[in-house]
Design brief:
The chain is α+β, with helices and mostly antiparallel strands. The protein is globular. Helix 3 runs antiparallel to helix 4. Helix content is 29%, strand content 18%.
């Protein structure tokens, strides 16, 4: 339903017996408690439910943030892709990724709905046809790349904010050629001195 958005998190592990455990965080755009429950119930029916918590709150209160100082330690590596639909093939690839021992966490986020109402060429985000975002966190680039490769074959795009290694291939997934050309045109006009370069250096993209 268009009023629902959800994010599933799973921890990585090695192969072996025992159930997988997933944490699902979902938001429903409704102040009607009965409607909220009816929209969430299909998610609860997917597998045995270990626990649940549902709360009505304002949108701004649901945004997790801290007004105090931030203390971040460690630097995980991450990979991201966008997929239009979950097929048996990509589901098997993701299952193998989770059991590879190469990741610490996997996230699957819903990205469809109203996102697809915006034309592909309206903004820098070109992945408007994708219904899901898949993100993996690991500790080492090489081992994560090896485990990620079978999943990456199904990508129709990527989201750069979830990428820690922006090589040329991943940048092309994030910015199709037409999008990239528009961004570089804007870049030359508003940032000729290349002040904004820490995330993606558009001025040097062609050199990668």
């Amino acid at each position: 339903p268009r009023i629902l958005t959800a994010n599933m998190m799973m921890g990585g592990r090695g192969p072996g017996p025992g159930p997988h455990v997933a944490l699902v965080m979902a938001m429903v755009d409704s102040a009607d408690g009965d409607q909220v429950i009816s929209v969430l119930q299909p998610l609860a029916d997917v597998a045995p439910l270990l626990g649940q918590h549902v709360q009505l709150m304002r949108y701004q209160d649901a945004m997790l943030h801290s007004a105090g100082p931030q203390y971040g330690y460690g630097q995980p590596v991450s990979r991201s892709l966008l997929v239009e639909h979950f097929t048996p093939a990509i589901s098997r690839a993701i299952n193998s990724l989770v059991e590879s021992g190469a990741i610490g966490a996997l996230s699957v986020r819903s990205t469809g709905g109203a996102v697809a109402d915006v034309p592909v060429d309206a903004t820098a985000y070109a992945g408007r046809t994708a219904n899901f975002s898949v993100i993996a966190l690991g500790s080492h680039d090489a081992s994560l790349d090896d485990a990620w490769a079978p999943v990456a074959r199904h990508a129709v795009g990527a989201y750069s904010s979830f990428e820690t290694q922006l090589d040329a291939r991943r940048l092309r997934l994030t910015f199709p050629l037409a999008t990239l050309e528009r961004l570089q045109t804007v870049k030359r006009r508003v940032d000729p001195d290349n002040v904004f370069r820490d995330n993606i250096d558009l001025a040097k993209l062609d050199e990668r």
